[in-house]
Design brief:
The chain is mainly alpha-helical and 134 residues long. The chain has helices at residues 57-67, 71-77, 83-95, 97-118, 122-129; strands at residues 40-42, 48-50. It has a single domain, classed as Orthogonal Bundle (Arc Repressor Mutant, subunit A). Helices cover 46% and strands 4% of the residues.
Length: 134
């Protein structure tokens, strides 16, 4: 771990669900170790993940924002996540809503900018000429 991160990982006697147990965290959001809950872990870059998965909290949050599904409904879409993991991700999102919403907005702005920049790319011109895209 670098720059003072205090996430305890990997000890044989530590719980498998990734509790943060000590000190301050290296994280882009303003929070302390007491803010992190069961089923959520922070990587060395400070990204929040659902423990023991390859799913980021922000991905579940974006899905919830788009569809407003219940955790039980989301479990049908993410059968590899438990309902408890989904609730934990949504709780973590709501606890840090302002920071997540800012990150989501910045990401969407980047996507829109890249889409606008690529609107007249050589590949798109060729596809338009072939009648495959408008």
């Amino acid at each position: 771990m670098d720059q003072g991160s205090s996430v305890r990982r990997g000890r044989a006697d530590s719980p498998p669900y990734g509790l943060v147990t000590l000190g301050r965290l290296k994280y882009s959001f303003s929070m302390t170790a007491t803010d992190v809950i069961n089923h959520i872990r922070l990587d060395e870059k400070g990204v929040a993940w659902i423990d023991n998965t390859r799913i980021k909290v922000i991905e579940v949050a974006m899905d919830w924002l788009a569809n407003r599904s219940s955790a039980e409904e989301m479990h049908l879409q993410y059968p590899h996540l438990s309902v408890a993991q989904i609730h934990a991700a949504l709780a973590f999102y709501h606890d840090h809503k302002q920071e997540f919403d800012k990150a989501i907005a910045e990401s969407l702005e980047r996507v829109e900018k890249l889409a606008a920049e690529s609107a007249d790319s050589p590949g798109r011109r060729k596809l338009r000429a072939m009648g495959l895209i408008p």
